[in-house]
Amino acid sequence: MPHFDWNCDEGSPEIATDGAEACPQLRLVTSLAYLNTVPRGWGGATRLPRANLTVDAVEGSCFLWFNAKQDEAAKTWRKDPSAQHHGLCLRQPEDSEQTDGYVARKLVAVQWIRASPLEASSPGLCEEDPETCMMEESLRRSLEDGSTA
Q: Which of 51, 56, 109, 145 has a beta carbon 3.0–4.6 Å from 82's, enabling a disulfide?
């Protein structure tokens, strides 16, 4: 299903034209690293329909995009409608010679680059990503008392 990596309280993750202003923990950039190649004709590409862009899943390749555009006048970021994206379904082509129960899979590693450093005190962040908050707090305590994690 097409969606946005818009994780701010203001604005909808589904609506591109809501003009929402970015929050400090905004996922500014989404990066997908493809860990395997999906056979030609089986689908699995990543599509940005508003940008009219489709990228095939090819092992070792990386695809990234901005989720917001910089508003120079207001010195802030706003949702970018062209960042709407989705993965295409994996389907066996009718003319496929695979008859042995082969199942295609698409494996990706996702990395988000945020608009500002992660802070455990950021509103809403720990609800979104509790493991990161726990690790950050543990590291902060270790650094404060001079021990190692």
A: 51
Report pTM: 0.70
For residue 96, give both structure tokens. 């496929």
Instruction: Residue 5: count other Cβ atoms within 10 Å of its Cβ.
Output: 18
What separation in angstroms does the CA of 73 have from each of 24, 76, 98, 108, 141?
18, 8, 56, 36, 40
Q: Residue 29 above 50 pLDDT?
A: yes
Q: Using DSSP, state whether 116 is helix, strand or coil.
A: coil
pLDDT in tens, 54-86: 999 999 999 999 988 887 776 777 888 899 999
Indicate the Cα dihedral angle 35, 37, 43, 44, nearest 10°.
Answer: 0
In this structure, the number of other CB atoms found within 10 A of the CB of residue 124 comes to 13
Nearest partner of 7 among 19, 138, 20, 75, judged by Cα: 20
